[in-house]
Design brief:
Elements: E1 6-8, E2 10-11, E3 25-26, H1 50-59, E4 64-70, E5 73-80, H2 92-96, H3 107-119, H4 122-131, E6 133-137, E7 153-159, E8 167-169, H5 171-178, H6 182-191, H7 198-210, H8 213-235, E9 238-240, E10 251-253, H9 260-273, H10 281-290, E11 293-294, H11 304-310, H12 316-341, E12 348-351, E13 357-359, E14 373-382, E15 388-394, H13 402-414
Parallel strand pairs: 1-15, 10-11
Antiparallel strand pairs: 2-3, 4-5, 6-7, 7-8, 9-10, 12-14, 13-14, 14-15
């Protein structure tokens, strides 16, 4: 049975009596969640890498774990706070100046500018910040004719709200509204060219250089080979798992293949017929793993009838009837499940043959020959709601008789 919304319930020892059919389900232990093991995939998932996650959080202005350096040791354990809007400018000089308009922006407008800015991509942030800052040469030197001055330019900061023209504000107002760091902003402006960030210019040059007849021809040839491989892989007859469909999406080849080398030779033969260069064996094996295609099915994935057929002890007609019954049973189950989801019927599956649990369950050698209490259990799974109930009782309350399971099923339907 599936383990979605699994309810683990125990039968009360005093309330459960097989003679008068009175038992109560104890709800003291419920909603037990089973931790499934992490599935390992051959496909790289950069979005889940720690470095990429930190980078994404930083670019979105959220809280993240940053780096710090102490001499030659770099640690990734510094908690960086999220980006927040700073207080507005209250300088008296800005209020009196004719070329400063810090007071024209209220808190609602500043918040709108802040959230719009941090919803943009990193390149859009750079472009917007560089376009709102004017870099001009200094008007006068305060050190006379001396060349010792480190100041070479002056920055004019502007803010723009929606469709209104940008207006000049002070540096504190600009940085506080956008939630930026002064050093970060100066680096963006220093590396920009004609108001465009450095990365945007390089990516544009790279795109222009890549567009060439030779590169385009290679890409078209590679696309043709990939499409040919995918079509060939889809043409192979495959079948799903027999008993493991609930937890496995792996497909098994129906052809008479005994190794991946044999499948690869079949692929190279197809490429030679179509006059195409085949991919390498490494690429072929990786694609087989990515598409979850196998040759041999698990041992528990076959019933006794199918195993007997492989030993040539059953005729083709009997095996065809067996496959027809299998398909019919699967269709009937799906039909009953759809009716149960429409509240037309109640559809359950019952797993009776559960392992006997011993109480106490200890691995100490001194308890090996001690007498233990046998506990039985049965699972009832609702196909419509994906709820699973597990009923327990010990050998002092009842045995593995038909009346016990009938009582449990009747009382479960009455609950």
């Amino acid at each position: 049975v599936g383990n979605e919304n699994l309810h683990y319930e125990s039968l009360d020892v005093e309330a459960f009596k097989l003679n008068d059919l009175n038992f109560i389900v104890d709800d003291s232990v419920e909603n037990i969640v089973f931790n499934c093991e992490k599935s390992h995939s051959i496909i790289p998932q950069p979005d889940k890498w720690k470095r990429e996650t930190t980078k994404r959080l930083r670019m979105n202005g959220e809280e993240y774990i940053g780096y710090q350096r102490k001499k030659s040791v770099v640690s990734h354990n510094v908690l960086r706070p999220p980006r927040n809007i700073k207080p507005t400018c209250v300088s008296q000089y800005c209020l009196k100046a004719n070329n400063r308009f810090c007071s024209t922006f209220d808190e609602t407008q500043r918040l709108d500018i802040f959230f719009t800015f941090w919803k943009a991509t990193w390149e859009e942030k750079k472009t917007l910040a560089c376009s709102l800052v004017n870099k001009i040469k200094k008007k006068r030197s305060t050190k006379g004719n001396s060349d010792d001055s480190r100041r070479g330019n002056t920055y004019e900061y502007n803010l723009k709200y929606k469709d209104f023209p940008p207006v000049k504000v002070c540096k504190k107002m600009f940085l506080g509204t956008l939630g930026l760091n002064e050093n970060m902003l100066h680096n963006w402006i220093r590396e920009s060219t004609n108001g465009l960030p450095k990365n945007s210019k390089h990516s544009l040059d790279k795109t222009i250089n890549e567009i060439s007849p030779q590169s385009l021809a290679r890409k078209c040839a590679l696309h043709t080979r990939v499409e040919h491989f995918n079509n060939w892989l889809k043409s192979l007859p495959k079948m799903p798992s027999h008993y493991c469909r609930q937890r496995s999406k792996r497909l098994y080849l129906e052809g008479p293949f005994y190794s991946y080398q044999e499948i690869y030779e079949c692929y190279t033969k197809k490429c030679n017929e179509d006059e195409l260069r085949p991919f390498s064996k490494c690429y072929f094996n990786n694609q087989m793993k990515i598409n979850k295609i196998s040759i041999f099915s698990p041992r528990k994935d076959k019933c006794d009838f199918c195993s007997t057929y492989e030993m040539n002890q059953i005729s083709e007609d009997d095996y065809a009837v067996h496959l027809a019954h299998k398909s019919s049973a699967r269709e009937e189950k799906q039909f009953d499940k759809s009716r149960a989801q429409k509240n037309e019927v109640y559809c359950f599956t019952i797993d009776i043959m559960q392992a006997v649990k011993l109480c106490p369950s200890l691995k100490a050698s001194s308890f090996y020959y001690s007498m233990k209490l046998k506990c039985h259990n049965v699972k009832i799974y609702n196909l419509a709601t994906n709820d699973c109930y597990n009923y327990w009782w010990h050998e002092g309350e009842g045995d593995l008789e038909a009346s016990v399971f009938a009582t449990i099923l009747i009382k479960h339907l009455m609950c």
